[in-house]
Amino acid sequence: MAHPIVAITRAVPGTPEVAGATVRMAPAMPQLSRGELLEFVRDADVIVSMFHDRVDDELLSAAGARVRGVCNFAVGVDNIDLAACARRGVVVTNTPDAVTEGTANIAWGLLLAVARMIVVGDRFCRSGEFERVGNTFPTGWCGAHLTGQTMLIVGAGRIGRAVALRAKAFGMSVLYAARTRHIDFEQAPIAGSQVDLDEGLRRADVVSVHTPLTVQTRHLIDARRLGLMKPTAILINTSRGPTVDESALVEALRHRRIGGAGLDVFEHEPRVHPGLVELENVVMTPHIGSAEQYWREQMTRMVCENAAAILGGKPPPNRVTA
Predict the structure, then answer these.
(1) Is 268 a catalytic residue?
(2) Is 225 in the active site?
């Protein structure tokens, strides 16, 4: 009897191995087109999908009757039609925890880059302007301070908590906006307070978005809510691009209605809004939140463990339900 097939839709770090199964892995670059993806998953028993793969009835039909599981190489599952998977008895898993530290680190990297104008300063040095102009101390390059300021966490999950913990190391106060109370945000060392989102936006000096993408959170940060923020406030988004109305954000940044933004995700990824490219009060990274070698290798291990459990008829460690 032929070994079951685990189809990984893009090359992953580490060595993906699933005992008793044949692992079929697509190249890292270029990303498979939709047609190539549909062909690639044919006859797969388990599909290891990426956050940019749309897993729907079309893809599941292309895989065929053997497909038993979809293991998403991500914590978010907004790319997966959970209802379609449930109808077909296909088990869905993700990779929680493994993305937490890396994404929290990139959120803080973006915040510091915006607050201290690091990218603009780097370009200033590389262009020869520093040598030509000289040191502008003490009035030049004065960025935003963070100690004693207030951070609003939007979405009080694992990543939001990790970002909040780092905020305490900078001497910041923490507010959080979430559908339910999270006592771990209110206990030491975070000692945060739950607030209504609109109130939090009015009070915060830094807003960091960590909510999953759902129908309810699409454009959660829109023109009206951007208008509630302080003109000096910084917006950080490392969740999913469509949680922020990108066109409204461009206008807010262009007219200095907010102080700046740090973005690791984009509304129409991988396309970046041309208005963002023109602005110096925004710092952007290409959706690399979890891209730390150690944690990406842990994600590989997790999807393989989930796939092995599904193939073995056992409950997978990281099952996602609708």
Answers:
(1) no
(2) no
Secondary element (H or E) of residue 62? helix 57-63
Catalytic residue among 10, 161, 240, 296: 240
Q: Are 152 and 206 in contact (CB under 8 A)?
A: yes
Per the residue annotation, which of 58, 101, 269, 297 is the catalytic one?
269
pTM given for the model:
0.93
DSSP category for residue 139: T
Alpha-carbon Rg of the chain, whole angstroms? Answer: 22
Among 10, 210, 287, 296, the active-site one is 287
- Long-range CB pairs of 188-193, under 8 A, 24+ apart, other chains included: 189/165, 190/161, 190/164, 190/165, 192/153, 192/164
Is 287 tagged catalytic?
A: yes
Residue 286 in tokens: 């290409």
Return all residues near 18 (Cβ < 8 A) that are at least 6 apart: 6, 46, 304, 307, 308, 311
Q: What are phi and psi of 241, to 5 degrees?
A: -55, -45
In single-letter form, the type of residue at position 103 comes to T
pLDDT, tens only, 11-46: 999 999 999 999 999 999 999 999 999 999 999 999
